[in-house]
Amino acid sequence: MRTLLLRWCAIFLALSLAAPATAHPVPFSYLDLEVQDQAVEGRIRVHLTDLAPVLGIADPQDLLKPEVRAAYRERIERYLASRIAFENGGFARAEWGPIAVVDENEAVELTFRIAGEPEGALSIDTDLFPADPNHQTFVNVYEDDDLRQQFIFAGTSEPDTYYRGTTVGAFAVMGTFIPSGVHHIMIGPDHILFLVGLLLLGGTWRRLVLIVTMFTVGHSITLSLAALNIVTPPGWLVEPAIALSIVVVGADNLLQRQQRGRDLRAWVAGAFGLIHGFGFASVLREFGLPQEALGWSLFSFNVGVELGQLAIVLVVASALALIRRRYPRADNRIVIGGSLVVIAAGGYWFVERVFLGA
């Protein structure tokens, strides 16, 4: 008798726990975007339990009634459009299609069409039901009948961008990542000081461009490896190594000044460029790489870094050449004084990054 009672208690407990799961579906919504040449079409699916409260409907099951859905249709469309940021206000001009009950009477699905040729870069952001902090929206982007990209948006998510697999999309990628590469090299004092250290000994324009290009070749290799998650050394190892490379460049300048030996700066730039590439990769990962345009984004970022480096070379090398022409005796002071500054700064960063965890 006791065993039978325990069994009935277990069944009752299981049923009571299962009931809320049925009454309250998982807090997910789904948005499908089909990118075409002259329009973006798609569908959005939301659960009744999420939608009813924002409409002021006490019982979500009322939305199963066709007359209720018809009465609230315009409000549903306005609400969904207001919660989705897409292609510069695209949903504000969406043409909405039928509304249907799906998922075993737990959700409704609306179709839509946004007329007009889509941009090469499509910005997407959504927070459909902010009252529920656990709610997430799954976004699937299709182009040429293929699933190209997937995003998951929650309340704290940042906007994301889909780059079309067209010429327009490629130009959009370049327009985003080339300036990003230029910006990163310009705000990286360690990378700039490394380049300045390579320029202190002077040389022909051809020689200086070769040195910078070798640096680009080196960091492009490791940047690509890290961005593709093939080789990803930890930051606590990469950042001190970058600082140490600056010290080595400054010391090499002093040695070459004394010994008048073979100019190895191009090889030094290429070798240490491998280390700096991992530093670039950490920033690029934070920026976010579009998987549907991975090759173009890596190429464009590297082009931007190279353009930024060449700009630095143009300014610094021109200034050094002008000083040397006007004050020939200052050449020795430029190399020695500049190299000591480079060594001191690199040494400071090395100590800071190793012992202070900066």
Shape: elongated
Question: Which ranges are low-confidence, i.e. pLDDT below 50, for 5 or more consecutive residues?
Answer: 1-24
Number of strands: 9
The main sheet comes to: 6 strands, mixed
Structural class of the secondary structure composition?
Answer: alpha+beta
What separation lies between the terminal Cα atoms?
69 Å
Overall domain count: 2
Helix content: 55-70%
Mean pLDDT: 85
Q: What is the string of helix and strand elements? A: HEEHHEEEEEEEHHHHHHH
Short description:
This protein has 358 residues and is α+β, with helices and mostly antiparallel strands. Helices cover 58% and strands 18% of the residues. It contains ten helices and nine strands.
List the helices and strands and how they pair.
Blueprint: H1 2-23, E1 28-35, E2 39-47, H2 48-55, H3 66-82, E3 84-86, E4 95-102, E5 107-115, E6 121-126, E7 136-143, E8 146-153, E9 160-163, H4 167-186, H5 189-199, H6 205-227, H7 235-259, H8 265-287, H9 294-326, H10 331-355
Parallel strand pairs: 1-7
Antiparallel strand pairs: 1-2, 2-5, 3-6, 4-5, 6-9, 7-8
How would you portray this structure in words?
This protein starts with a helix and ends with a helix. It has helices at residues 2-23, 48-55, 66-82, 167-186, 189-199, 205-227, 235-259, 265-287, 294-326, 331-355, and strands spanning 28-35, 39-47, 84-86, 95-102, 107-115, 121-126, 136-143, 146-153, 160-163. The strands form 2 sheets. Strands 4-5-2-1-7-8 form a 6-stranded mixed β-sheet. Helix content is 58%, strand content 18%. It is of the alpha+beta class and 358 residues long. The protein folds into 2 domains: 26-164, no CATH class; 168-355.
